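sry for the spam today, last one i promise. struct tokens for design, 614 residues
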């Protein structure tokens, strides 16, 4: 969480910083701030509670001059969102400014030590402690800013990506990272620094991803220099971005979320491209081919992920167990990391993450690797921390996902997990070729089927108007579509603030059935599958108790059409790919209900897209 941007060059920093903050707003949006050194060498710091738009209003008629600066958009961890806790934070003398993404775990001890030296603190943040520590070291040791940053970081326990400027050294920005991402953009006579590449792409496609324990020394007119916290010089690996500015814009849609929902025919096509052919049943995943020995020897697979990615993992479990006959466990990364997990070198750990930056998932990977497991990543963001921390993996290639609620990343993850299951199954000869061929054919047809499913948009928008009254929703599904029920419920609650619970449909009678009355709508995910008859009786149990039923069914399902209050008809698909198709109407339903309730769907309260703190 939190986004940071920095700029040094010949252009006015303010516009670049603000534009960059807008791009990073998905990472946090409870307060924002900028710090710039102007031509006279003064440090101007402006910060405010609220979104980047609020910051822009706040900066009107202020001195925003300067060609060097840093900026921040916050998702509060230490201290409530307010003007004082907003970043940048400044040192005691007011000469050094710092922005930070991450958490300094030992900030309490450091704060006490600094207080003993006479330091006082205005904010409740861990970040203020760091900037004051840097200045204390700089003054006490009479050293340079970079040396003070390096010494200070040696004292710090926790996660950080930081950017620091100092009026005593106004032509320099220092950046550093440990467990939180930081990318440096190398332009022509100008250098950028940001939490991800989106604020940079407009100006240059040449980037350097900073590694953990590295410090970047960015000086005007000089080549980038990177050292480690142990003061050794580090290799600079300049990479070329494959990202375009148009991918970061709404393209005529009112919200990123709706744009991303409608992008899915294309994103799924991109996801399968080069992995399945136009004909035949071959599934080519280089990660599986290159590490065939690992997949052949695997005794068990453990999937680690959070949130929506965890739901994709639950679907992945069924797919892999079915196709590859390897037992699969699915763990919340946040639980796994603190459970002293039993992991052996015969295990494969699959980490799923859209952002590739989720702190819990990253920590789970580190534990798994320490215990000898082979770790395979399923990520979206190329070059992200998780993509780099894994032994191998498959990118989902769905392009930047900016809406905070995950949509196209979920369908991309499930698509990759489907291909992964088939590839492992083919390798281990645990799946019949005709079954592979059937699923591959379904994957090939997915973009067209999603296109057809998106035609439901108007109907779902109309339906959503009926249910804005609800305070609670139940989502029920079975088999492959139990995780779809969890995901449908998560989508609704996170963007509309309606409480929603996902449950296996047959479990309803063991508790949630008590909730059913006229006030509680239930969404049944009930496409034609092996358990279709069973789910029909579950629907009848709800109807018998006066509950309203919205059912997602396969086109032509007259039985459910007669019982349910509302039906949403999706095209016929094989069971294994049905979670991808059913997720489309569930995404649309959540979206339209949230919009009708006047919620900010792209930036729901309290959430952030990239959860880089515990
Ligand atoms: C929900 C959502 C979150 C993320 C979760 C993991 O719509 O987006 O639940 O799925 O925070 O994020 P990643 O996939 O980036 O690790």
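last one done:
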């Amino acid at each position: 969480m939190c986004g940071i941007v920095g700029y040094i060059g010949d252009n006015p920093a303010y516009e670049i910083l603000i534009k960059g903050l807008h791009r990073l707003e998905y990472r946090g949006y409870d307060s924002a701030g900028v710090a710039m050194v102007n031509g006279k060498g003064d440090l101007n710091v402006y910060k405010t509670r609220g979104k980047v738009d609020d910051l822009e209003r706040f900066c009107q008629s202020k001195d925003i001059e300067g060609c060097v600066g840093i900026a921040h958009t916050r998702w509060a961890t230490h201290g409530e969102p307010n003007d004082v806790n907003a970043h940048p934070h400044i040192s005691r003398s007011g000469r050094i400014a710092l922005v930070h993404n991450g958490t300094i775990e030992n900030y309490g001890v450091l704060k006490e030590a600094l207080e003993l030296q006479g330091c006082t603190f205005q904010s409740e943040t861990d970040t203020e402690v760091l900037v004051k520590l840097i200045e204390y070291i700089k003054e006490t040791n009479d050293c340079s800013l970079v040396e003070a940053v390096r010494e200070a970081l040696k004292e710090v326990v926790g996660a950080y990506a930081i950017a620091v400027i100092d009026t005593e050294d106004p032509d320099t920005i220092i950046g550093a990272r440990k467990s939180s991402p930081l990318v440096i953009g190398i332009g022509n006579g100008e250098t950028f620094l940001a939490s991800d590449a989106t604020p940079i792409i407009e100006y240059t496609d040449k980037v350097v991803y900073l590694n953990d324990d590295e410090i970047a020394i960015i000086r005007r007119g000089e080549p980038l220099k990177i050292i480690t916290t142990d003061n050794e010089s580090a290799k600079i690996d300049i990479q070329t971005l494959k990202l375009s500015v148009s991918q970061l814009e709404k393209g005529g849609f009112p919200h990123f979320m709706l744009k991303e929902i409608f992008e899915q025919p294309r994103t799924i096509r991109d996801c399968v491209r080069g992995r399945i052919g136009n004909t035949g049943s071959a599934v080519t995943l280089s990660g599986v081919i290159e590490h065939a020995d690992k997949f052949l020897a695997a005794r068990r697979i453990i999937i680690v992920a959070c949130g929506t990615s965890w739901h994709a993992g639950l679907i992945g479990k069924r797919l892999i167990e079915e196709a590859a006959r390897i037992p699969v466990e699915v763990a919340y990364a946040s639980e796994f990391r603190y459970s002293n997990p039993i992991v052996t070198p015969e295990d494969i750990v699959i980490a799923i993450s859209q952002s590739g930056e989720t702190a819990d998932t990253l920590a789970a990977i580190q534990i798994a690797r320490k215990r000898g497991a082979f770790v395979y990543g399923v990520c979206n963001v190329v070059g992200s921390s998780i993509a780099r921390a894994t032994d191998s993996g498959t990118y989902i290639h769905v392009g930047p996902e900016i809406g905070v609620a995950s949509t196209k990343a979920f369908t991309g993850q499930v698509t990759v997990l489907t291909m992964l299951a088939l590839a492992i199954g083919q390798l281990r000869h645990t799946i019949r070729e005709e079954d592979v061929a059937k699923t591959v054919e379904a994957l090939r047809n997915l973009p067209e089927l999603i296109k057809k499913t998106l035609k439901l948009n108007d109907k779902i928008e109309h339906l959503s108007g009926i249910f804005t009254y609800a305070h609670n929703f139940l989502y029920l599904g079975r088999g492959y579509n139990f995780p779809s029920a969890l995901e449908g419920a998560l989508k609704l609650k996170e963007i509309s603030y309606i409480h929603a619970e996902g449950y296996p449909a047959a479990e309803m009678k063991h508790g949630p059935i008590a909730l059913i009355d006229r006030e509680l709508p239930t969404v049944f995910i009930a496409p034609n599958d092996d358990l279709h008859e069973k789910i029909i009786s579950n629907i009848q149990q709800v109807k018998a108790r006066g509950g309203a039923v919205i059912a997602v069914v396969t086109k032509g399902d007259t039985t459910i059409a007669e019982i349910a209050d509302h039906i949403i008809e999706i095209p016929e698909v094989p069971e294994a790919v049905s979670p991808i198709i059913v997720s489309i109407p569930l995404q649309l339903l959540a979206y339209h209900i949230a919009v009708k309730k006047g919620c900010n769907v792209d930036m729901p309260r309290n959430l952030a897209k990239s959860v880089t703190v515990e």
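The mean pLDDT is 95. ok im logging off now
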